[in-house]
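Co-fold these.
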Amino acid sequence: MAAKGRTMGRIFAVTILVIAIGSAIPILRHTWWMPQDISTHGAPIDEQMSETMAEAGICFLASQILLAAFIWKFSNPKPDSKIKTFPGGASGLVIAAFLLVGTEVLALGAFGAKAWAKIYFTPAAANALPVQAQAGQFAFYFRYPGPDGKFGPIHPDMVSEANQNFYGIDINNDQDAKDDIVTAEMAIPVNREVNLLMHSKDVGHSFFVPELRVQQDFVPGLDVAIHFTATKIGRYEIVCTQLCGLGHYNMKAYLSVMSQQDYDDWLKKEAALQ
Amino acid sequence: MTIRLRIAGLLAALLSISVLALFSASKVRAAGEGKITGTIKLDGTPPHQRPIDMSKEPTCQQQHAGHPITTENVVVGPNNAIQYAAVYITEGLAGAAGSTVPSQTPTFDQKGCQYIPHVMALDVNQHFKVVNSDQTSHNIHPTPKPGGPNHEWNKSQPPGAPPFDVFWTAEEAIPVKCNIHPWMHGYMVVVKGPYGVSDNNGSYTIENVPPGNYTLTAWQETYGTQTQKVTVGSGKPATADFTFKAK
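Predicted complex below.
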């Protein structure tokens, strides 16, 4: 009877070790890692991510190994052995664990604040390219201010799918709206800071470009701004990562990072289609 | 007694003869049913139709490679002919002609991320089929006026899903949209009685119109409605042309 309990305990301890190490391997080998970073602000985010993974990983492995060791050693207690409980017996150990984990979490937060502040507490440069992103169930549309650099006012009552007037702009009467360019695909010049002004037409959505290390929610009723600089020419997917309804899974658009020349040509072409 | 029987027999005979007569009369009338034809034209320059960017849905974009699709608020064919105008009778339909629901079930197809047809006319309570021919999911979202007799619905149809059968219970021009592909836009024009929709030459035909005097209405999504009087003679097609003025 006692021998059977010991065998079961040891099998369990080994199983825990195998699962713990097995799940650590793909993380250590970066099997499903993030795509290549194409932004100027992404490096500290990636570093933060690596640090978090390393520290959480070490804690995870250490606790699993400790758990396995305890099971291995104590899987067959003698009938007269004392059981320690908290509060009481193991207080020292529990307090130490609290301190360790607490410090860890605080330290991650303190270091992470730097990466966060660099994006959110620093305004976009004055010469950043302004682009508007509008999210609505279940598509994104983008607006460029045109040569005058000004966005025309939005009239929600003029929003019309039939006219492709997704923003509700009045080209005929609003001076600032006359040269506005509305597009279904987002294009930006490479190595130029973009100031993305985001608003939602209906519910909460999110603007996520994994390569750009930008994931920002659209909040209904709020104008949210985020700025970034893309450093690599290419075509990337913009996906909604905030469950927004029935068509959420298909809510996407494409981001094209182009050379300045290609971008100018693209914008001219889009302006002609308005 | 025998006299009574004879009278009963006579009455029965009279009854059957009159029923027969009625039956054959209605047959004669059916053969004499006329039709209304005509063309719809635009006076002026059609408004600019914006090209549609379908890059969000590559399977649809590929289908239109080389000939981009535009909006369809005013679709003009040769000689300023207006396509997708619905023509129907608003006054003068009596009895059976106004209340018989056609048994054909038209198809409202979603193909290449467009509605085909862009404008579908229907009789009240006439059933129609919604089909998804695309390799992507669509949601069919007709938006009748809130508070009206028709009720808004919104149904999703994944690729390969079977067609579904629906109908509308009241007259109304109902805009239809797809939230997944916001450029998709069409109309279901629900009318009472026979109808026609103009083709790319601007011509329309309304079949099965009994002889009579009617008020005919033409509806166009951007320009609204126009009416005119028309008289259909027995076996003679009537003609009614409409011209919409560009805004």
